[in-house]
Amino acid sequence: MKISVSQEKLNTILGILAILFWGTTIAFSRSLTEQLGLLTTASWIYLLSGIWGVIFLFSKPGEIKKTFRLPLLYLIGCGILFVIYTACLYLAIGLAVSREQVIEVTIINYLWPGLTLIFSLPILHKKGRITLIPGIILAFTGFYLATAQSGMFSWEIFKGNFQVNCLPYLIAFIAAISWGLYSNLVRRWAGHAEGGAVPLFLLITGLALTAIRFMFPEESYWTPRVVAELLYMSIFPTFLAYFFWDRAMRKGNIILVASLSYFTPLLSIIISSLYLQIVIKSSLWIACALVIIGAVICKFSIVDNGKRKNI
After folding, report:
1. How far is CA 305 from the centre of its chain?
2. CA distances (Å), 170 to each of 26, 88, 104, 262, in order?
3. Any bridge partners for residue 304, and if so which?
4. Residue 275 buriedness (CB in 10 A; 0-12 / 13-18 / 19+)
């Protein structure tokens, strides 16, 4: 089934909305994790988002049937990658020995936009120009500069943390690889299929994170603000964002959206600065310019080579 131009544009817009929603994650999740604990917060967010997703499936006639008619490779393969990504990310953060190491594993996790573009070459038969390499480097350098200049990252602290506890870095890298693969394989395995299995992926992820939470007991303090923030996180940056991203990767302009995804960590820093009333330094705007230039270069460095089979 061929995707119309209007459908592709709509799904591309949904992917951009997912990026915007993900940009609010750090600002809101910081408040939650300080009161509930990291893994408790994550398990509740994904359990609730999975419940919203299941309600969504049952509210649309025939949607459940469409979900279980999806290709088996997509349901099993992408489902496993989805759970691996989320579990590894939160496990890496949970195993971090300090706040500095949390930032460092987050940086490693944000290798996934570049990996998504790189994996699109063999998986989706895209053709890459040599300019893709400097594009990826420029975009990631922008994110690194924003993090370093904001005082969130230091090479000396990084080396010390790595020597003490290297496991979180490895797990974060596995998370980045998993999401880069997921973003391409959903297109290859279910690009033109109807329906989607994100609600099921979210629910299974919530159950997996709940199991991990029992391995790392945490104290939680519930307030009306915590409940409100938890509801926001479960609906917008989780259920809607992952649902929109899945649609964009399957039926949108995957290269454009993947290139724009470099803005996700930068948006997180900017929105967190505004939400927490922190003055934004001039270096952040330089970093923003680097991300923009890198994303544009990446966008025009990958083209189709005419192979449309299995996509």
Report:
1. 27
2. 22, 9, 11, 21
3. 126
4. middle
Tokens of 10: 């709509």
In this prediction, residue 157 carries a pLDDT of 66
> Measured between alpha carbons, how far is 232 from 81 in angstroms, rounded to an integer?
25
Chain segment 39-82, per-residue pLDDT in tens: 899 999 999 999 999 999 889 888 888 898 899 999 999 999 99
pLDDT of the residue at 81: 96
pLDDT band with cut points at 50, 70 and 90 for residue 307: very low
CA distances from 262 to 41, 67, 91, 311 (A): 25, 30, 23, 24
Helix 167-190 to helix 112-123 angle (10° resolution) is 40
Map residue 5 onto helix, strand or coil: helix
DSSP secondary structure code for residue 2 in this structure: P
* Alpha carbon of residue 17 to chain centroid: 13
**pTM (predicted TM-score):** 0.86
146 contacts 287 by C-beta, under 8 angstroms = yes
